[in-house]
Amino acid sequence: MNLYPGPSIDVGVTRTPQPAPAAPQPAAVQGLVFGSSATGPTVRLDADFFADRERVLALTARWSRDELYALGNVLVGEGDRRIEGELLELLRDEHAGPPGSPRVTHVEFVTDNDYPEGVYWHDRAIYVHVSGHVEPHRVDYDDLTQEQAVQYRKLRDLLADYSRADRPSHGDHLVVDLGTGEFERSGKWARA
């Protein structure tokens, strides 16, 4: 009598292992790309995948509140981490002068507490430190070309995001070193 399911054991007979059944393939979902790498299988989600609120809610319907918050924290943290890099790239592009011109070494921001939500980095009180000059120069954002206006809106939006991610205090100064990429906060003017 065989107490175990499946084929019985025959003494003296060698069996070759059967190949494992193929893993079920997920239903084709637009926005998901399945592949493999040296470290194992990978799944890449296209950003448009998350644009459909109903699809995301259906996928996470059985998640606990803690699991939802954990994913949200990862995504918000990654977004916040990228702000400094985008801001640095924009500042380097904006303040790269023609060859032979005085070099901007640092960009300095001061706070503006004239917002109902709190203190933000002021998007009109921006100063540049130029190599060979002692005093910083205020950047003028009046009479912008259309291209400059687009860049200024990007700068303004990044400063607002950076203020939300790392809230400044009234009187703070943010100094961005364009050479090293360091961001330093203090309560006093920087020296170039």
Could you walk me through the main structural features you see in this protein, from its secondary elements to its overall organization?
This protein has 192 residues and is of the alpha+beta class. The chain has two domains: 32-78, no CATH class; 82-186, BH3703-like domains (Murine Class I Major Histocompatibility Complex, H2-DB, Chain A, domain 1, 2-Layer Sandwich). The protein is 30% helix and 25% strand. It contains three helices and seven strands, in the order E-E-H-H-E-E-E-H-E-E. The chain has helices spanning 53-59, 65-94, 146-165, and strands at 32-37, 40-45, 104-115, 118-130, 137-138, 173-177, 183-186. Strands 5-4-3-6-7 form a five-stranded antiparallel beta sheet, covered by helices on one side. The protein has a two-stranded antiparallel ribbon with strand order 1-2. Strand 4 and strand 5 (137-138) form a beta hairpin. Helix 2 (65-94) packs across helix 3 (146-165). The longest helix is centred in the middle third of the chain and has 30 residues, at 65-94. It is elongated. It starts with 31 loop residues before the first strand and ends in a 6-residue tail after the last strand. Residues 20-29 have low confidence and may be disordered.
